[in-house]
Amino acid sequence: MGAFGTSTTDPGSFRDPNSTVLHAGAQVLRLLSSAAAEDWQRLTETTFFGERVSKGDVVATEQMQPADRQGIADEAAWPVVLRHERIPFVSYPYEWSFSQLRDAATLHIDLLLDALGEHLTMKDGYAYNLQFRGAAPVFIDIGSFEHYRGGPWAGYRQFCQTFLFPLLLQAHKNFSFRPLLRSQVNGIEPAQMRRLMSSLDLARSGVLKHVALHNAVDARNATRGEGSRATADHLRESGFSGAVAAAAAKNIGSLVRKLRWKPADSHWTTYQLSSTYTDAEREQKKAFVREALSRRHAGLLLDLGCNDGTFSLLAQDHADYVVALDNDEQTIDLLYRRLRADGNTKILPLVMDLTDPSPAIGWRSQERPSFLERAKPDAVLALALVHHLAIGANIPLPEVVSWLHSLGGHLVVEFVGPDDPMALRLLANKPAGLFPDYRPEVFEKLLAERFEIERQVTLESGTRTLYSAVPRG
Amino acid sequence: MPILLDVATPYYLDAGTGSMLVQLAVAGVAGAAVFAKMGWAKITAPFRRKRSNDVVETERDQPQQHQPADD
Prior knowledge:
The structure holds two protein chains of two kinds.
Chain A: E1 7-9, E2 19-24, E3 27-32, H1 34-45, H2 47-55, E4 61-63, E5 80-84, H3 98-116, E6 120-122, E7 130-133, E8 136-139, E9 145-147, H4 156-173, H5 178-183, H6 190-196, H7 207-221, H8 228-237, H9 242-258, H10 271-274, H11 279-294, E10 298-304, H12 310-315, E11 319-326, H13 329-341, E12 347-351, H14 371-374, E13 379-382, H15 386-392, H16 397-406, E14 410-416, H17 421-427, H18 440-450, E15 451-458, E16 464-471
Parallel strand pairs in A: 10-11, 10-13, 11-12, 13-14
Antiparallel strand pairs in A: 1-2, 2-3, 3-5, 4-5, 6-9, 7-8, 14-16, 15-16
Helix pairs in contact in A: 3-4, 3-9, 6-7, 15-17, 16-18
Chain B: H1 2-8, H2 17-26, H3 29-38, H4 40-44, H5 53-61
Helix pairs in contact in B: 2-3
């Protein structure tokens, strides 16, 4: 068994017979077959790999010494074991905003070009090859790099389905890709994408070739033809070389880089301007949160309903890593772009509807675990959130408190009373008298049943109360 | 040689015939050269109107021959 205890195979790593990811304790290991070990050797001999790892674009990876790998897998079948840097919080493309997906796509293509320049290519091309370290995309699928033997890129179709089609859909039609990627783990199919495009759309960047032509050639080959392996061989024999593959990759890269999402301004982005906190209250709230978080250092902190990230930025000094969640995609996109410009690697912004968080999807509904399975925070901020769940989404207050308790971790929560302007705005949309129990004393009683309340403060206005609480049991 | 390549090639996905052919168009001028070398017949085989089964079988049996288009 060695020092690792039991290890489990990553549920998303099973399709490539030459490379498997394992979790052994807190370590992320990758087993390589002898074929994959040869490709790993070639990868380490390239110039780009070391450079990209130092820049943080590719996950830090080292080969385990034979002595260290005692008990990890059969050495004959898996002659090489790699150890990867651990990504603090795993997220998926259907949780990313437009700019996050685009930056991940750009990095993927840039790495493909680096690889082709040094006689390597990539076996696949889907968005699950990347993760984020704060606001920086990181390529994690080291097993994807392989010796280039001529021919077209095998990952182009996956790249279209999980990167290009989603980006084109949002850039050209202002239609969010997230629901489609969440419900189809393999992404958007060419035929499906084609049906979403009107004749006017054919004139837009990338649509004619990557969507219309792609679908047409696909359809014709569906029931006849020689199979893709033979086609690859014919293309190779006809001179489809690294230069041709690189030309295609460069064009895809240029296309992705120029795509822009132009949403109509959502009311959430002007929230800070229209919000009803006085400057004094804002300072009072910040001071409370700062004091509460300084009591203990959190490994992982979740900021639920982060809006412009004010409190995530405050919290990053008191946690190893912050995941900032908001339901509004434009808000997260703006926050992400700000953090990226600052080079922030501690705060990961994600788009998430907390009343309908990402489910587990894929093979055996385990391939991509649900958000709640991944979320094991040490601390949680639930500021100006409870009224949205309890009033806006009709979640009973006991349910809200029970859910906050189930997340585990130190809770800093704000209760906005029924006479507060923010609550009144939501109550105006519901029948009168629907929430008789939405009252501060009811909330406090529910909170005290499940948590030990360390400290509380009612802000100047008298309608908002902040609590710092630790879960019981 | 193709057989050796098969055994040695560790990639595992179906890259998709359509997806591979489209890369010729995506590669621009560089792709056009390959397109020309592959021969018009090979590329347009997917686009030709359906013929009788006999003709289709012949094309499959002799993949290296370039059948002139006679439609």
